[in-house]
Amino acid sequence: MAREKIKHNTLAYSSCECELSIPQTLDDGRQRVEVFVEGYEDVAFWRGIFDHFDNPYLRFEISVPNREDLPKGKKVLMSMLGRSSERMLLCVDSDFDYLFGDDTPQSKLICDAEYMFHTYTYATENYLCYAPSLHNVCVKATKNDSHIFDFESFMAEYSRTIYPIFAWYAYSARLSTENVFTLNDFKNCVRLGYLDIANNGYDTLAWLARNVGRRLQRLEEEHPDMVQGVEDFKRHLSLKGVTPDSTYLYMHGHTLMDNVVMILLTTVCDRLRQMSVHKINSSKKQGLSLKNEMSNYMNSLRSIRDVLLDNENYTSCPLYKKLKADIQRYLDSTIASLIARKGKSRD
Length: 347
Fold this sequence. Notes:
The chain is an alpha/beta fold. The protein has helices at residues 2-20, 40-50, 74-79, 97-100, 105-112, 124-128, 134-142, 151-174, 183-190, 202-222, 227-239, 253-281, 287-300, 304-309, 318-346; strands at residues 31-37, 58-63, 88-92, 116-118. The chain folds into 2 domains: 17-121 and 317-347, Rossmann fold; 125-313, no CATH class.
């Protein structure tokens, strides 16, 4: 007990020392712009986004709001919307707000806000799981560049499979009748329990299609009054750019990452590692040389999740291009105003 108390006091002292020794922010001559994000896990993502907009006039500093009275998250940033400005930006996950547009008060506020940027995808995780980038994630994690699985083809077919049930979930959310089809129901319906890598996951997708079909039939039988509304909502989704083969970009981000993409990556990476180990064991090396080769390979492996969280190969995504255009408009306007103000001050 005494040992625990000493440890606690040491930590408290260290914390105090850290507070006293926090260095001053460096002044590089550029105007500092505060960029607030929903949580600590979002800092790295938005840092990567704003790194694409380095310029000699503005310096972006990403952080979470320092609020003791409220938890971190989108609600906190929404409460700060009235104070947002050229020098204080807010960045949030779109959730369904991009898709809902002017249909709800919150979505209208977010879509119209001048100094709040939203992902367009459901969340930052959807960018990290951008299908064309997933092979590179496997390569970085396993150091094996063999193409044994077509992620783009699989995710397109996965999206087409879940599209009808996604439309039901999003429509019920827009009507604020989530009890019709809850998030938990949606997660259970679209998650992958396994990946059979043969035939590029054909059997897995067939299993998923059966699950989706059964749930869809139940929804249509239990809520026949909503069927036409869902069909009309699909047309609305298409106007927003949602296509059946891109559904995964708009679905719940954590479900996509944890219950779909990580299942794919784990299975594919396991196979790639097995291939590499077999290749090393089948080589002519023996004894210490073989042991060193195997040790070097094993030491080069990385955590799949860590590589995925560091993934920045989503810049070809059409939704990223929308976000980029929004930030560029802000940048052009703000820099022009800054230059104009400096010109007047010289006069």
